[in-house]
Amino acid sequence: GAVVSQHPSRVICKSGTSVKIECRSLDFQATTMFWYRQFPKQSLMLMATSNEGSKATYEQGVEKDKFLINHASLTLSTLTVTSAHPEDSSFYICSASGTLNTEAFFGQGTRLTVV
Amino acid sequence: QKEVEQNSGPLSVPEGAIASLNCTYSDRGSQSFFWYRQYSGKSPELIMSIYSNGDKEDGRFTAQLNKASQYVSLLIRDSQPSDSATYLCAVNGHPDSWGKLQFGAGTQVVVTP
């Protein structure tokens, strides 16, 4: 299967700072990338969909000014959590699909802890 | 509200037995269906995908889809302790946006030696 690399795998930041998470497709061109969030003991919740070269589409209830998504190339999307607070602590997971894919491939996830 | 429903478990299965997992979905227009395995603290790993009614087998795993009943299941034969994980059912209702998935809450499976 296709490989999606997500970094960092873990990050601890202070409240009020911003954190950037990268999602890269290593062996295919990802026309679409998805960002999910997963709280403990809960399922994955889709936050936003990003298409290369265009603005991300956010799901209802997700603050677009807080969770900045950039998908500037066919192999890289970034999620920036701005002015992070402890309630933003969660497991963030990206996935990517290309024009020839009928499924999406997941990155390894990023465990964000805001202290 | 489009929903994907699963029993949360835990489902306790003796080693070597068959684990049976169920999932129902509310969007009748859903096109594709997936089962993911997720170990604690890890990202989901795709086990099976199924797109048409009937059974699909891959090794010890069999997925079953019944679109009329809006039901998809996963059977794990000869369960092993390494199968202990949370199994997520995911549904895609958007053929123009492959990968935009709606997940169930997951079923925790515990395989006991």
Quick structural summary:
Chain A is an all-beta fold. Chain A has strands spanning about 5, 10-15, 20-25, 30-40, 45-50, 55-60, 65-75, 75-80, 90-95, 105, 110-115.
Q: What are the low-pLDDT stretches of chain B, counting only 5+ consecutive residues below 50?
A: none
Distance between the termini of chain A: 37 Å
Structural class determined from secondary elements of chain B? mainly beta
Question: What multimeric state do the chains show?
Answer: heterodimer
* Tally of contiguous helical segments of chain A: 0
Intertermini distance of chain B: 40 Å
Strand elements of chain A, count: 11
General description of the model:
Chain A has 115 residues and is mainly beta. Chain A is built from no helices and eleven strands. In chain A, the strands form two sheets. In chain A, strands 2, 4, 5, 6, 9, 10 and 11 form a seven-stranded mixed sheet that branches. In chain A, strands 1-3-8-7 form a four-stranded antiparallel sheet, with no helix packed on it. Chain A starts with a strand and ends with a strand. The A-B interface holds A 1, 6, 32, 34, 42-46, 49, 91, 93, 95-97, 101-109, 111 and B 32, 34, 41-46, 49, 51, 88, 97-106.
